[in-house]
Specification:
- The protein is mainly beta.
- The protein contains 2 helices and 15 strands.
- About 20% of the residues are buried.
- The strands form 4 sheets. Strands 9, 10, 11, 12, 13, 14 and 15 form a 7-stranded mixed beta sheet that branches.
- Helix 1 crosses helix 2.
- The longest helix is centred in the C-terminal third of the chain and has 15 residues.
Length: about 200
């Protein structure tokens, strides 16, 4: 997904010194959400906030990652399947059509006292279309057709056990320009290994 490059030299601290700050450069590839001053968790350690810039170089982005990898997979899948832009949480103020997504809950699946490492993430997806309710229903069907086929497979490169379809909510909003914005909200439960995010 990306790489980490140590920019500062490794520092050793004694017990009486404050926490040592290492400077690293993170390079990620297209489709990864990048933001300023976020936290990164690696398989080795937890990196608190501290990088304050994001630089884009050609098709690479350098900076802090936002969200977990499952969110990145969902964003990529939604954009590929629907042909619309997908955004975390809300549509930008200037956008009236698109998709949004957010993680609502992610309880771990357990078996007695055994932790499985698999979580059941409830992901809420909102689809927005102007003046076309039928295409909104078709997009929902298209998303489910693809997601239900993921069984012990991958979603945009992220290992996923399987996907369930949950609740649905639909509404519409009359805009000031006399257009109608239709919204369809759908829950998906994605079972995946937590270490992959």
């Amino acid at each position: 997904m990306g790489k980490r490059e140590l920019v500062s030299g490794r520092k050793v601290r004694t017990l009486d010194q404050q926490q040592v700050v290492e400077t690293c450069l993170f390079t990620v590839y297209p489709g990864v959400l990048v933001d300023i001053d976020w936290k990164i968790t690696t398989k080795i350690w937890f990196i608190p906030s501290g990088i304050s810039t994001v630089k884009r170089t050609g098709s690479l982005s350098r900076g802090r990652l936002t969200g977990g990898m499952i969110e990145l997979a969902i964003k990529g899948a939604l954009e590929r399947i629907t042909g619309m832009n997908a955004y975390p949480l809300l549509l930008p103020d200037t956008v009236q059509e698109g998709a949004t997504f957010q993680r609502i809950s992610d309880p771990e699946m357990v078996s007695g006292m055994l932790r499985t490492g698999i979580v059941s993430a409830r992901i809420q997806v909102n689809l927005y279309r102007l003046d076309d309710y039928t295409s909104l229903l078709q997009l929902d069907k298209k998303i489910w057709t693809e997601l239900k086929s993921v069984v012990h497979g991958q979603l945009e490169g992220i290992p996923v056990q399987y996907v369930e379809r949950g609740g649905i909510h639909q509404d519409k909003n009359q805009l000031t320009n006399r257009r109608i914005q239709y919204r369809l909200t759908r829950d998906f439960i994605i079972h995946y290994v937590e270490d992959s995010s």
